[in-house]
Amino acid sequence: MKNQRIPVSAGDTVTLDCSIEGGFTGWRYIWYKLNWTGGSDLLNDTTGETYTLQSVTQSDTGVYWCCGYRDGLPQSSEDSNVVILHVQGKPKATLKLRNQKKSVSIRDNVTLDCSIQGGFTGWRYTWYKLNWAGSRNIVKDITGDTYTVQSVTQSDSGMYWCNGHRNDPLQYSEHSNIVPLIVRGKQNVMLKMKNQKETVYTGDNLTLECSTEGDLSDWRYRWYRWNQAGLWNELKNISGDVYMVQSVTVSDSGKYWCYAFRDDPPEYSEFSNAVTLTVKEKPKVALKIKNQKEPLHIGDNVTLECSIESDLPNWKYRWHKWSSLLKWTNIDDSSEGTHTHSVFSYEIELYWCAAVRDDHPYYFEMSNAVTVSVQDKPKATLKKRKPENIGDTLTLKCSFEGGFTGWRYTWLKLNWTGRIGSVKGITGDTYTVQSVTQSDTGVYWCAGERDEHPQYTKLSNAVTLSFQEKPKVTLKMRNQSELFFGSVVVTLECRIEGASPGWRYRWFESSGNRWKKVTDITGDTYTMKSVLSPDSKQYWCWAVRDDPPDYSEVSNIVTVKVRAGLNMTLKMRNERKPVHIGENVTLECSIDEAFLPRDINGGNGAGQMELDGFNMETLF
């Protein structure tokens, strides 16, 4: 990796260089990236010897390698070594005004402190200022973490922020928060919200007014917003003293400022006060059955209660029913939050309500749906196969009690926008989704109807389709040793969290500068017999299963290190020839201490054995 440094931060530019030894020319290069299914993705962006990633993100994290090919001999090279690229977020910078006061006056001393999280050293700081003319300037000759302005004037007013960078390794921080510095003494500006309400909901209309003291008819205005994401933005195309937002959303939340200026003669006002706008989602409406009786019989009355989470008065309610004809019907409008309805046999009764305000602010909010079931109808049961990962096949099975035949099936889905609709084209008892995506997320029901009595079933239980992360696997060495000598047996264990059955395992090992699959091994252990010094390698694994189809994340990497066997020497102490029967003999065995682990013989590399009463039989 060119200009290699660790860590690599989001937004950096990374260049990979591929070089081939031998002095041959005319090479064209192929670039690869390892994907998490065990294969490799071909990077088609370039055939040159360099591969550059501009402004990297965390999705660029991965394992990269290259190889070359050409028209002459040799036609191709071996695969290169792999380079592991890990992209991390930039450190956060925080800017504070030291000894902060509500008001800074002319000739006050002001100090700004810039700090960067993470505990790294060697930072140099860049300071920025947004002045009242709307231009951004870099504060020159200041590279420390503090910026002090002695005896401020109104020209020092503005918005300040900072960031940091360092060279070893090369790294940049994020831009800090913005600190407004307002030096009093100019024309005062007041910002307020017209028709201000205690709570602003999505869909409301917003009007902000920037007012000044005196006649400023020839002045223009600039508007700024500090949003919830920590970004400072000038509101473009607004130069009047009124800022309007039609149908606000949550993203309009933030702090707003304004100021006034003119060009001839050049003059500008103070920055206004800040107005904080917090936009909330519209109030939610909840529908439930009041004093629910189970089971319900024909002719029973059901009382539905509709409530809304709001302090606003004068709500009215509209009541709707999903009938057996598969359509919504308005059954009542009232100012009361309850509705009583008689249930009848052989109906699938699904209700929802809406809360409505006719005066300002106007709202129309829908509730959740509530199902009312009558005992006479057969029970419907909906089951699913687990798990549901993105790309899996999902099967929902709908069954009815009672043993009746001739059913036609209706499938219903509630998506996350709050809409319930029928799933068209499916009339059988099985609903299958091939390769599910996020758009298949929702709550599912089924029901049945037929020509004879009983004509209708109850609405089934609700099945929520959601997604789960891939299981994680951990690879470890059963021998629990960092170093092996000579010929040994090494066992690796691949363990998946959750311990659900049906998993098969795939094993990979390093071969030279590339990975290859270990064939004929599908269990969760991999035993290597008679491992020798050339077998020092790296290993990783992952798990797959067929029923239901699923696969795990890739495990961690485990390295097995093997050295050659120990050097041992046997000799006779006080060696002399010949040795006669009946004499004592001392043999001494020594081990090369350079290869001897510390826990053998207490650190002593020699051992000895005495043969008392030596005779010829001890030799055989």
Task: Present the secondary structure layout.
Layout lengths: L7 E2 L4 E4 L10 E7 L5 E4 L6 E4 L8 E8 L13 E3 L1 E2 L4 E5 L6 E2 L4 E7 L7 E7 L5 E4 L6 E4 L8 E10 L2 E3 L6 E3 L1 E2 L4 E5 L6 E2 L4 E7 L7 E8 L4 E3 L7 E4 L8 E10 L2 E3 L6 E3 L1 E2 L4 E6 L10 E8 L7 E7 L5 E7 L3 E5 L6 E9 L5 E4 L3 E3 L7 E5 L9 E7 L7 E7 L5 E3 L7 E4 L8 E8 L13 E3 L7 E5 L6 E2 L2 E9 L7 E8 L2 E5 L6 E7 L5 E10 L2 E3 L6 E3 L1 E2 L4 E5 L12 E7 L14 E6 L9
Parallel strand pairs: 1-8, 10-18, 20-28, 45-53
Antiparallel strand pairs: 2-5, 3-4, 3-6, 6-7, 9-11, 11-14, 12-13, 12-15, 15-16, 15-17, 19-21, 21-24, 22-23, 22-25, 25-26, 25-27, 29-30, 30-33, 31-32, 31-34, 34-35, 34-36, 37-38, 38-41, 39-40, 39-42, 42-43, 44-46, 46-49, 47-48, 47-50, 50-51, 50-52, 54-55, 55-56
Quick tags:
620 residues; mainly beta; five-stranded antiparallel sheet; disordered C terminus
Structure characterization notes:
With 620 residues, the chain is an all-beta fold. Helix content is 0%, strand content 46%. It is built from no helices and 56 strands. Strands 12, 13, 15, 16 and 17 form a five-stranded antiparallel β-sheet that branches. Strands 22, 23, 25, 26 and 27 form a five-stranded antiparallel β-sheet that branches. Strands 31, 32, 34, 35 and 36 form a five-stranded antiparallel β-sheet that branches. A hairpin with a 5-residue loop joins β39 and β40 (420-422). The model is unreliable at 598-605 and 611-620 (pLDDT under 50).
